[in-house]
Amino acid sequence: MLVLALRSVRERPGRFLATLLSAFLGAAIVMAFNSLHDTAGAPGVDAVSSETLRTAAGVVGGYGTLLVFFAVASALTVNVRQRAAELELLRCSGATPGQIRRMVVGEALAVALVGTAAAVLPAVLGGRLLVELFQDTGQVAASVDHSFGAVALSSGVGVTLVASAGAALLALRRVTRGRWRTVQRRAVRR
């Protein structure tokens, strides 16, 4: 089913554009703000600057995580609803609900990986801009240099992939639950 999922994404890229855009923007926001954690933990950063950077990263990073989940969930729900007939055809041709679930989650993860990879450079630039803005307003010392490291990268990738997989499962549950029960009832009646 994973091969079918990747082929589906490759054959109809326009269908996944909203999901890609949601994953890209969400990952860029999460990584840019979480790079402030990397910057705060760098050697030579004073306590006041570190506190400011960690607070901003924590608050916006938390809201960014919710934003990513809801944006990707909305895009995937629309995508799955538009494909209801295609998914029904797969079910009628012998695909189990688990196989369909793996296919749709695989598509979501493939699109999220591409979106996250594309978001790294904008996140680095965005994080650097954030540090400069904090320096311009006197909240962070001028000697602090921006750092983009493991916290930013792992949080961006992790949040985007988990949000995409969770959103795909949620979208599938909403769309396929009723129809699968209808198919099961019809099979029992015969």
Automatic annotation (TrEMBL):
Entry protein name: FtsX-like permease family protein
Main location: membrane
Compartments, as annotated in UniProt: Cell membrane
The organism's place on the tree of life at top rank: Bacteria
Keyword presence, Cell membrane: yes
Keyword Nucleus: no
UniProt record similarity statement: Belongs to the ABC-4 integral membrane protein family.
Keywords, sorted A to Z: Cell membrane, Membrane, Transmembrane, Transmembrane helix
Pfam families in alphabetical order: FtsX
Any one GO CC term of the record: plasma membrane
ABC3 transporter permease C-terminal domain residues: 64-174
Membrane topology recorded in Swiss-Prot or TrEMBL: Multi-pass membrane protein
Example of a GO MF term: transmembrane transporter activity
Bilayer-spanning residue ranges: 56-78, 108-131, 151-172
